[in-house]
Write a structure and sequence with these properties.
alpha+beta; single chain; disordered N terminus; 6 strands
Length: 311
Amino acid sequence: MLLQNLLSAVASLVIRVTFYIMKINLKPFCLTLGFKNTAILFSASILGGLLIAPEQPANAATELAKVNQTVITVEDFEKKYKENLRFFQLKAPTKQGVLDDLIKRELGIQEAKKLGIDKDPEIIDRMNTVLYHALLEKRLNKDFEKIVISESEAKDYYQRNPEIRTSHIFVALRPDASADEQKKALARMTEIRDTHLKPGKMSFAEIAQRFSDGVAAPVGGDLDYNTRDKLDPAFYDAAVKLKTPGATSGIVRSQFGYHIIRLTGVRPWSETDQAQTKRLVYDEKRSGIFEQYMADLRKQAKVSVNQTALK
């Protein structure tokens, strides 16, 4: 019934407009277009315009709020609201609260741009760091998700990189130490080794307590058990090469200074945290994917380094 009434009203309007058109002289214009009947042309145009509703784009965004010239769409709001629902801890978010936060955020962004903060070199550097991490996430996350670590892989890795217990005699040295400071530190360690580290004299623990630097000195240099990722690479490699508990290294240079290392234990596979070992294997594979990706990018770019300035 409603549709019939609507069509009747439209037809009535078209008829009235048609009679009006007959009274005005639009004939030259219509003849140019090839229409001899002016009334028919305009009636058809009006009827077509009334009956055919303009189409809305299928993906048109719906405006929810506007901050100056920036529109916050319903779609953007829903996405942010769902994120808040997923990650809230103590107080559940409300729709009004999330919208208020979006408006505050947009106000802040606009004010920052007005003040030129987005042109500040420090801010640009921070934004580039975010961009860099976003690239890695976008490009590499799918590859990371495909990584699978088998039991045999983890065990094989552990045979090469066991969890070890060590003690050390330590002479600290800054990474940027001068040549003279390095020479003095090495001379001090050499004297400790030659004077005190001999059979029949003080024990290793006593020497560490009396002459060593660092937090482990009071407990005889004991560093307890550690996996590869917890120790300096040079220190770990030198300790693993000792193989047998009780064996002692020569003087070893690490990024922290000089060490004389004693291997005091190797934890067997059956007693170690095997899940932790799998995480270490995962990290190694993840690092490999990252390094390969960056190497490919570097091949596509022109990179030059002034090695003299680096020194």
